Fold:
Amino acid sequence: MTAIKKIIQLGNQWQTQDPFLFCAYHHDHFPAGNEDLGPKDSITGRNIGMDFANKDGWNMYHGTTVPGFPHHPHRGFETVTIVEKGVADHFDSLGAHGRFGKGDVQWMTAGKGVQHSEMFPLLNSEEANELLLFQIWLNLPAKDKKVPAHYKMLWNEDIPIVEEDGISIKVIAGTYVNVSGPAPTPNSWAADTKNDVNIWLIKLAPKTTFTLPKNTSNVNRSLYFYEGGHVYAEGYEIPKMHGLHLHAAEEFSMENGEHESHLMLLQGRPIGEAVVQQGPFVANSQQEMNEAIAEYRATEFGGWPWDRHDPIHPKEKGRFAIYEDGSEDIRV
Structure:
């Protein structure tokens, strides 16, 4: 039996398997930044407020001055935001805020509801600003859909990287060869090791062979090839921007081609519950979805305490987090 169940082509939103909902992929080659930390290049001709056309290799997304996503709500799931290149400025309705990037990961449990913004300030004023960001939506089981919102930083320097024979594995969640990633948020599906949630970033040197060992049959496993040339597995020549849904109960080996390759692994035991999704809300039934929307209209999940819908930090700020309780975590 082969390990490959399905090969999919990748775009800006990657198809995932339970317990994941999807993964958003953003790779922008922004121009130099202006005094407002937006692009120096003209934004004329872009659909400002809804710019996803990738004109000139970058997008403004929902931003009007700075690229990014002004304040918006989430409920009923988690976001795991990996910023491998560039930076993101975070603000939320709990009063927490920060700046992270250059390999950092933000793990946010939306739970019963939170608003947040995520903007991408262009800090380099004399050269291009590259952004490479993944946002993974990880579902919550019904029992945890209404837990209090919570966010946590996994700083790059605290995330282990396993190096062996041309293979580099950044263990954001789960375990690889007895090396475990940082703990996720307390109510996460990933917090229980029995759920076998793994999120890895994999780098392969040219001509390297990489093997995923067998796991149990009730674990969903997907591998996403987003940068490189070609990889070879089970008789297939697979180009970049393709993903593989795998039978976890089968060993899977792949050989890298002539170029360095980058992949992401998502794995976890499925939650196995009904999913009703409407925009940024996830519920288990339509009635629960209607209740979530009504609650947001009535409360706005605590409102928005900041003076603009797309706040950013000053250019000179480094990487830091200030949490809901006022505690600070300052990084260089």
In short: Residues 51 and 239 are 27 Å apart (CA to CA). The chain has two domains: 12-157, 159-273. Helices lie at 286-299.
